[in-house]
Amino acid sequence: MGNSAFSDRDGFIWLDGEIVPWRDAKIHVLTHGLHYASSVFEGERIYSGNVFKEKEHTARLIRSAELIDMEMPLSEQEITAARHEVLEANKLTDGYIRPVAWRGSEQMGISAQATKTHVAIACWPWGSYFSEEKREKGISMQTTKWHTPAPDTATTQSKAAGLYVTHTMAKHAAEKNGHDDALMLDYRGLVAEATGANIFVIKDGGIKTPVPDCFLNGLTRQTLIQLAKDLGLPIEETQIKPEELYAADEVFLTGTAAEVTAVGKIDDAQYTVGPVTRQLRSAYEDLVRTKAKAA
Asked: CB 30: neighbour CB atoms within 10 A?
């Protein structure tokens, strides 16, 4: 597919029950999801023909739609079948998958009772989210002024498109200042997440990660917690204050796109890509390869 714009690529996209040429996968400008952010999505990876955590991703997509009061027209089985149909059409065995569901253009206005939920699934080759150099020395981050919202002010457990506008602004500001990503605090001023990944903090060999009570409980996050337990590493889900983060020995991010990414700097704090990060990163890479071989 090359490095062309995402609207101008070879390949195929699954759209409302049909495999269509990539360039023909279009929607109307008055689509409700475009104007009112009534859209949910997933980010998934396929390794050697195996979609990692496929069942969990599919279930979360359906749950995300429910949380924003949007009817999902497809069952888990139908979404799974569509995913594999588009993977086969593109002959993709390693890469990234993006299912998305949105309210269409059948009605315009705040109310969306008459809209139809549309679903599309795209996939493309995609390597590491950050370069190998950054993986080795750790990415640079800055704390953003934007905070994750309280759970009674937004559907924070839904992977809903509308929640990501502040993440985009935060990442843009960080990039303009020479950083790779941004750290987001929550509405209480506690450590929350990065713009597209969860965060883990290591001090004296002990691992902590924030309680996901106002941000998405990532599937990769859940996987890393279990891996740490399996390896006998001390890990705790708890509230983390910024001063604890700045005093940490190691910091890393987790996410489908980011996988396990070391952090080398947040604001003025410096971190080493240390043994715990390397052990967990290696364990995660072994896990996805093992799952792929077993599939």
From this structure: 12
Looking at residue 2, what is its pLDDT?
45
* Nearest alpha-carbon partner for 258 in 122, 163, 139: 139
* Residue whose pair of structure tokens reads 């910091």 in the numeric block: 251
Residue 6, in any domain of the structure: no
Query: Quick one: tokens of 123?
Result: 């996939």
Residue 1 lies inside a defined structural domain of this protein: no
Mean pLDDT for 156-172 is 96
The structural domain count of the chain equals: 2
CB atoms within 10 A of CB 255: 22
Q: Annotated catalytic, 159?
A: yes
Candidates 159, 171, 176, 208; catalytic one:
159
Tell me the residue ranges of DSSP E strands in the chain: 12-15, 18-21, 39-41, 44-47, 50-51, 95-103, 117-124, 139-148, 181-186, 191-194, 198-203, 206-209, 235-237, 250-255, 259-266, 269-270
- pLDDT for position 136: 80
Residue at 295: amino acid letter: A
Strand partners, 259: 255
pTM value is 0.93
DSSP string, 111-159: --TT--EEEEEEEE----SS-HHHHHH-EEEEEEEEEEPPTTTS-TTS-
Tell me, yes or no, whether 202 and 271 share the same domain. Answer: yes
**Domain final residue pick, 72, 89, 124:** 124
Rg (CA), the chain: 19
- Confidence check: pLDDT of 134 > 90: no
